[in-house]
Design a protein that fits this description.
Strand order of the largest sheet: 6-8-10-12-16-15-14
Structural class: alpha/beta
Mean pLDDT: 91
Number of strands: 18
Helix content: 25-40%
Shape: globular
Low-confidence stretches: 1-31
Distance between the termini: 46 Å
Radius of gyration: 22 Å
Length: 419
């Protein structure tokens, strides 16, 4: 594990504590103008990723530090704003927004997360702005433009350190010792402080109880005594990261996770056996798999595996992904997992194989191809409309029912069929 990947989490989380303390009343008492007023007028509807350059109509104190914008709409009509610094790529800004959106997406059948509209409304109601910074040093409050921004927003923002964001398909993700991805830790901390804690008090109570239980049993050893809000936030970020496989490649070699091995479990199975309260807490509100659209890095080439393979450390994480795709000129092959996957094609010809589950294979430009495990005689192929064809495997437990859209060819073990 790269030391810097974890060391950067603490300044970001500590900063969030200070920022959250500044927004307790839901607004600034010293500013006449709401700092997000000029952001609320930005139209992102024409952009595929919802990311646009900051227009000249945006307050100069914002434009002096940031150059790109995205937002998430809450049911009540308010927005959660996302700002990116010049050194932050659209890819990483999109990923931060997508992971945060996943955290506030309804999970049907869960006890506390079946309807998260009130949570998102609570976050947006505070005019919350998530600023994605190139690194913490690039957001130095001793810099005059940054200081002006901080004063202007008066606590109505939280920062995510882009150096802790690891995109699927990037060298940091594919490395035999993958960099620890801090996106879940940082976005879940923001969510807890800016809305989740107050709008779902049962979850907050359960979180505190689970953390205290883990500490008393000696399975969780935080670095130092902290205020309850920060302690709960760090514990939530850590257990979510473990649950979704971020630490499962066991970078410590001791089966632990977190700074200095603070948590005795590094993967989901170990959590289920050793910290069932944490697992129950997660599954009461969050999805058992990651549903955000995980677009592969622009640097990616080759084959991306989603099914767990002990020889590929990154598959500890990709095994929990539902939606993976290419964007722009990135191309290659994606092999799915046992979940109900959605595959997203890019501008060039791509290859997809579902490998279990009922999948949606969405082609785009270029010659996109779908691959299946058996001979064509084992499948039924039925057009559903002018663009979608349903391919059903009659062999139970193999390829399932896949809907393919804008796919040029179907590859079976005995034949290739042009659509």
């Amino acid at each position: 594990m790269k030391a810097s990947s974890c060391q950067g989490l603490i300044p970001a989380l500590s900063a969030l504590t200070l920022l959250a303390a500044g927004c307790g009343g839901g607004g600034s008492s010293s500013s006449v103008v709401n700092p997000t007023d000029s952001l609320n007028e930005i139209d992102t509807s024409g952009e595929q990723d919802g990311i646009v350059p900051l227009p000249a109509t945006v307050d100069a104190r914002i434009r002096a530090v940031f150059d790109k914008y995205a937002h998430l709409d809450a049911p009540g009509g308010e927005r959660v704003h996302f700002l990116g610094q010049p050194g932050v790529s659209d890819e990483l800004l999109f990923r931060v927004k997508a992971v945060f959106e996943q955290l506030v997406t309804d999970v049907p059948g869960s006890t506390l997360g079946a309807d998260k509209g009130s949570v998102l409304d609570a976050v947006a109601g505070l005019d919350t702005t998530i600023v994605v910074v190139e690194e913490q040093q690039a957001f130095d409050i001793t810099d005059a433009p940054v200081a002006s921004f901080v004063t202007f927003f008066d606590g109505l923002y939280a920062s995510v350190d882009c150096s802790n964001v690891v995109q699927e398909g990037s060298p940091e993700f594919l490395n035999p010792d993958p960099q620890i991805d801090g996106t879940l830790s940082e976005t879940s901390g923001i969510l807890l402080r800016f809305g989740l804690g107050a709008s779902v008090p049962q979850l907050s109570t359960a979180l505190t109880a689970a953390r205290i239980s883990a500490e008393s049993q000696g399975s969780y050893r935080p670095e130092a005594a902290q205020p309850q809000g920060l302690a709960d936030s760090e514990y939530l970020g850590l257990i979510l990261s473990v649950y979704y496989g971020v630490w499962a490649h066991d970078p410590s070699g001791q089966g632990t996770a977190g700074l200095d091995g603070a948590y005795d479990f590094c993967d989901r199975d170990a959590m289920i056996a050793g910290d069932p309260d944490a697992v129950a807490l997660i599954e009461s509100f969050f999805s058992p798999s990651q549903s955000f659209p995980a677009y592969l890095s622009s640097s990616f080439s080759g084959t991306f595996e989603m099914q767990f393979d002990p020889a590929l450390a990154y598959t500890h994480r990709s095994r929990y992904l539902e939606r993976v795709g290419f964007r722009g000129a990135v191309t290659g092959r994606i092999n799915g997992n046992e979940l109900n996957n959605t595959f997203l094609g890019g501008d060039l010809g791509d290859e997809f194989e579902g490998r279990g589950g009922n999948d949606k294979i969405e082609g785009d430009l270029g010659l996109d191809e779908a691959f299946f495990s058996g001979p064509s005689t084992d499948y039924t192929i039925v057009p559903l409309d002018a663009t979608v064809t349903r391919v059903t495997d009659t062999v139970p437990g193999r390829d399932g029912v896949d809907d393919v859209r804008q796919i040029t060819r179907l590859h079976f073990s005995d034949v290739i069929i042009d659509l």
